[in-house]
């Protein structure tokens, strides 16, 4: 077995990105039955195996891949971790160059904020509407609007046929799907399952903030998702499992609308948890059978 690596094209500016995309567009599509020409995976860097699973899936789905690495100031509130968010582009590009991932014709777009927002903060923004008012939207006001605004900009800049997002950020995935539907954005959205460590913790760039003892306490989030029973029993058991953390929310919702399911609900629902461990805010979620 070979473990060949290859380095993708690195673009920092809009011109560099446009040139790299023109290269991709100019290449004859291989005579395959793959439906998509170009896939995009949007990230904030500090990559881990969760991000790489999106890239591997993109590689399978499309002829050419663009990975964006951009810590988007618009989706951080002043009290959040924008300044200390981990950044290491060389490491990220090395990871993306691993076997089965990016090739020389693929692109890593790593712009500075002034490249993405040349006129400063955008005056016109995307509103996540009702989806942005619950859960993450309550704890992080404006967060989903900031996400959707940059997602739409990056879709325009990278012109993909398919865009991949992780189920780890379930509310973000639902909001992106809704934006694409409501605003007729010409892209297919593909959700990718959550990648977890062996102990069950969902991989996250923010796990790097956790000290040893905090990491043990952080396991409570994935454990909380194993709750069973009626809607009320599931909510109570998940809260119970999170008692060693500072719970932000426990929610059992319709996976599309994010409305809480009623006490007598029977069927599949999305259980979401958010909690702070030490100073690190973590989220996790899973589909659960309710009332079974
Ligand atoms: P981020 O860099 O945190 O903005 O994440 C970039 C993309 O990777 C988003 O679509 C996330 O949902 C996805 N992602 C992050 N962590 C995971 C994970 N553990 N499993 C699957 N996808 C993930």
Description of the structure:
The chain is an alpha/beta fold. The protein has 2 domains: 2-192, HUPs (Rossmann fold, 3-Layer(aba) Sandwich); 205-287, Pantoate-beta-alanine ligase, C-terminal domain (Pantoate--beta-alanine Ligase, Chain: A,domain 2), CATH 3.30.1300.10. Helix content is 33%, strand content 21%. The protein is built from 9 helices and 9 strands. The strands form 2 sheets. A 6-stranded parallel sheet has the order 1-4-3-2-5-6, sandwiched between helices. β5, α7 (170-182) and β6 (188-192) form a beta-alpha-beta unit. The longest helix is centred in the middle third of the chain and has 16 residues, at 143-158. The chain starts with 8 loop residues before the first strand and ends with a strand. The protein binds adenosine monophosphate. Catalyzes the condensation of pantoate with beta-alanine in an ATP-dependent reaction via a pantoyl-adenylate intermediate. It catalyses: (R)-pantoate + beta-alanine + ATP = (R)-pantothenate + AMP + diphosphate + H(+). This is Pantothenate synthetase. Pathway: Cofactor biosynthesis; (R)-pantothenate biosynthesis; (R)-pantothenate from (R)-pantoate and beta-alanine: step 1/1. ATP binds at residues 44-51, 166-169, 195, 203-206.
CATH class of the largest domain: Alpha Beta
For this structure, the CATH topology of the largest domain is: Rossmann fold
Main beta-sheet strand count, sense and barrel state = 6 strands, parallel
Structural category is: alpha/beta
Ligand species: adenosine monophosphate
Instruction: Report the strand count.
Output: 9
Please report the number of helical segments: 9
- What's the structural domain tally? 2
The arrangement of helices and strands along the chain is: EHEHEHEHHHEHEHHEEE
| Unreliable sequence segments | none
**Assembly state (oligomeric):** single chain
The global form is globular
CATH fourth-tier homologous superfamily of the largest domain: HUPs
| Sequence of strands across the biggest β-sheet | 1-4-3-2-5-6
| Gyration radius over CA | 20 Å
Intertermini distance: 46 Å
Family: Belongs to the pantothenate synthetase family.
Main location: cytoplasm
Binding site for ATP: 44-51, 166-169, 195, 203-206
Subcellular location: Cytoplasm
